[in-house]
TrEMBL record:
Example GO molecular function: hydrolase activity
Signal peptide positions (record): none
Amidohydrolase-related domain residues: 9-267
One Pfam family recorded for the sequence: Amidohydro_2
Alphabetical keyword list: Hydrolase
Phylogenetic lineage: Bacteria, Pseudomonadati, Pseudomonadota, Alphaproteobacteria, Rhodobacterales
This protein's name: Amidohydrolase family protein
Length: 268
């Protein structure tokens, strides 16, 4: 039996409407809807069956639209942004509606929250108890410390966009080496996605190659990053699938990265 060559699961995209409430620090102001209906039509047009909605930092803890989408469409899962003070009942309701993790989008922050504080130790314990992961983006100089603190709390880590260690040192950066080490430890996964967000020429390809060599069968998932916030009109969904084929020329490994691994990570 011939396996389908396209991805089965898109592990990172966003859905929103242009009138949703933005945070005061929003870095982008969408001028059109990226509705769940449009998103699902896009997935269907490219043969993608399942998807994971990424919490968008633009809207902070306003998870309402994503929550409604998850309740209506059981082929979807999602990550949420929450206040550490939210109690267990609030988190359990999110889990019951289809959320599978929390997003810490800390790369833009000059100073990150203290994962050793009482509120974050409690939040991470609840994540572990719920079987959730932390969907993390952080800066190169502190990503090792952040990953290790989350791992020490018994929580899995999923990193965005090939790690997004977008520095002149590239694959030799201590931050990227820390990502590879985390993959080897077996509690961290990385998304092959959004190479267009790198500013260093050719670096996305080099980082992807190193990650494929380190964890291509078990620790990588593919994602589109639709609707390509900040790059609307410059990147297409077909481009995102083509990038997967470029980064992972082996069809059997692509099947794992685009199907088996994300199904195990997000849907079991």
């Amino acid at each position: 039996m011939t396996r389908p060559d396209g991805p089965l699961v898109d592990s990172h995209f966003h859905v929103y409407t242009a009138d949703m409430p933005l945070t005061e620090t929003a870095w982008h102001r969408p001028d059109h809807d990226a509705s769940v209906e449009t998103c699902l039509a896009t997935l269907d047009a490219h043969g993608v069956t399942f998807g994971v909605i990424s919490a968008a930092s633009l809207f902070g803890t306003y998870n309402d639209y994503v929550r409604r989408a998850l309740c209506r469409h059981k082929r979807l899962r999602g990550t949420a942004i929450v206040d550490p003070a939210w109690d267990l009942d609030q988190l359990e309701r999110l889990r019951d509606d289809g959320f599978v993790g929390l997003r810490f989008l800390w790369r833009p922050l000059e100073r990150t929250p203290d994962l050793g504080s009482e509120s974050y130790r409690r939040l991470l314990r609840r994540c572990a108890d719920l079987g959730w992961h932390i969907h993390l983006t952080d800066r190169p100089e502190r990503i090792d410390t952040t990953i290790r603190a989350i791992e020490a709390a018994g929580v899995r880590v999923v990193l965005d966009h090939i790690g997004l260690i977008d520095t002149a040192a590239g694959v030799d950066d201590a931050g990227f080496r820390a990502v590879l080490a985390a993959v080897e430890r077996g509690r961290t996964w990385v998304k092959l996605s959004a190479g267009f967000r790198f500013t260093q020429p050719g670096l996305a390809d080099r980082c992807a190659a190193a990650l494929v060599a380190a964890g291509g069968w078990e620790r990588l998932v593919w994602a589109s990053d639709w609707p390509f916030a900040g790059f609307e009109g410059q990147v297409s969904y077909a481009d995102a699938i083509a990038a997967l084929h470029h980064w992972v020329p082996d069809a059997a490994m692509r099947h794992a990265i685009g199907g088996r691994t994300p199904l195990q990570l997000y849907f079991t």
